[in-house]
Amino acid sequence: MSIKSIILAAGKGTRMKSEKPKVLHEIYGKPLLGYVLDCVNGITDENFVIVGHHAQEVEDYVKSNYKNAKTILQSPQLGTGHAVSMACDELKNYEGLILVLCGDTPLIQQETIAKFVEFHKQNNSDITVMSTIFENPTNYGRIIREPDNTLKCIVEEKDATSEQKAVKEVNAGIYCLNWGKIKQAFSELTSNNAQGEYYLTDIIAWGKKKALNVNAYILENNEEIFGINSRINLAQATKILTKRVLNNLMTNGVTIVDPDSTWISPDTEIGQDTIIYPSTYIEGKNKIGKNCKIGPCAHLRGGVEVWDNVKLGNFVEVKKSVIKSNTNVGHLSYIGDSELGNHVNIGAGTITANYDPLSKVKSKTTMKDNVKIGSNTVLVAPVTVEEGANIGAGTIVTKDIPAWSLGITRSPLKIFTDWVKDKLR
Ligand code: UD1
Ligand code: CA
């Protein structure tokens, strides 16, 4: 059966205090919305993102990053139920499953969504809502059950009685719907509530009234539905995500010397027996091999492929580069848009000058196998250092260097004997 998703991302995100739409705020260089789309991708065959505030920016992001996602404009924004109804035209003849998620919950995991869909199918459910337990459920919609424990309805905080407010089971904001049976609901929802909005949550009571099979799937790890409403939440989510990533890496044989000061994006693969030293920051998509030593204080900015037995030492920054096996970049270097061969040694303070600020063009630096670069070298890209060549310390490399040659730019060292003594006299 086909599964499609509707991702709600039209809201304003006032508390972010930002010019940027909330769902485009980033964790490790990836927008929040990207996390949700990556989560459903592989489960769904098509995704609809409901956009409103800063619609154009969100649409541009979706268009240029996700082929199987379309944006649908919701203007004005009259509530979550109204948001989903915006997809009714597109899905007029659709009879499969619809997953509804929010674009501001980046911690939701694919395996959780897979289990959720499985639960929906196994129970022959028409509507399944994800719920979870919070000791402090403030601001969430509460799950209200019948005496026999079946679902009755969802009540929003602002509409809840004090008795309902005491309920700790909350609506996680994720739904699985048999679209063929549910789509009719969206022409029947009303905005007769405290916020004057069309609530998506009202489909629970609607479904019960129509004698549909309505169920809740209780999510154990409530961290996964943590929503971003403020910059404080953004930092908290980054911490939670990082802890998950680091635990996963350690479980798979990577040493993280100090998890409290290490930051690694979830899109970074790392091989066994690699050691990550403290204060290392790795963002974007990267692949690091086995037996490497990274940091302390290394900064990988994405698009980095590191083979096995590589050392990237302290204050080394790497971006969009391939570094092959047994290569050392020990100290204080910048490697960008580069390809480094096997057994390359890079002296301290080496810079690949990859960017021309006048033409705004970025160029590539290539170093073949066994190249040795002396300390404080600048390689002005585009440039190639062929196999086995050596570069003397302090050299500015502006031409390709042939294999097994020495390249060196250096004004001769002058020595003035007793110069200091004379000065002091
Ligand atoms: C919603 C649920 C609540 C649940 C909570 C979980 C409703 C009525 N309430 O509340 O039961 O516990 O999520 O996080 O659904 N959006 C639109 N268009 C709109 C309104 C909202 O796209 O017209 C989007 C927002 O951008 C956001 C999502 O829908 O991504 C949720 O909206 P929000 O206003 O944050 O709902 P909550 O009050 O948190
Ligand atoms: Ca919310």
Summarize the structure.
The protein is of the alpha/beta class and 425 residues long. Bound molecules: uridine-diphosphate-N-acetylglucosamine (UD1) and calcium ion (CA).
Topology:
Layout: E1 3-9, E2 26-27, E3 30-31, H1 32-40, E4 46-51, H2 55-65, E5 69-73, H3 80-85, E6 97-102, H4 110-122, E7 127-133, E8 142-145, E9 151-155, H5 162-165, E10 169-178, H6 179-182, H7 203-209, E11 214-219, H8 231-251, E12 255-256, E13 263-264, E14 268-270, E15 275-276, E16 281-282, E17 286-288, E18 293-294, E19 299-300, E20 304-306, E21 311-314, E22 317-319, E23 322-323, E24 328-331, E25 334-336, E26 338-340, E27 345-346, E28 351-353, E29 355-356, E30 361-362, E31 365-367, E32 372-373, E33 378-380, E34 383-385, E35 390-391, E36 396-397, E37 406-407, H9 419-424
Parallel strand pairs: 1-4, 1-6, 4-5, 7-11, 12-15, 13-16, 14-17, 15-18, 16-19, 17-20, 18-21, 19-22, 20-23, 21-24, 22-25, 23-26, 24-27, 26-31, 27-32, 28-33, 31-34, 32-35, 33-36, 35-37
Antiparallel strand pairs: 2-3, 6-10, 7-10, 8-9, 29-30
The structure holds uridine-diphosphate-N-acetylglucosamine and calcium ion.
3D structure, described in words:
The chain is α/β, with parallel strands linked by helices and 425 residues long. It has 2 domains: 223 residues, Spore Coat Polysaccharide Biosynthesis Protein SpsA, Chain A (Alpha-Beta Complex); 177 residues, UDP N-Acetylglucosamine Acyltransferase, domain 1 (3 Solenoid). Helix content is 19%, strand content 30%. It is built from 9 helices and 37 strands. The strands form 8 sheets. It has a 9-stranded parallel β-sheet, with helices on one face. Strands 5-4-1-6-10-7-11 form a 7-stranded mixed β-sheet. The radius of gyration is 28 Å and the shape is elongated. The structure holds uridine-diphosphate-N-acetylglucosamine and calcium ion.
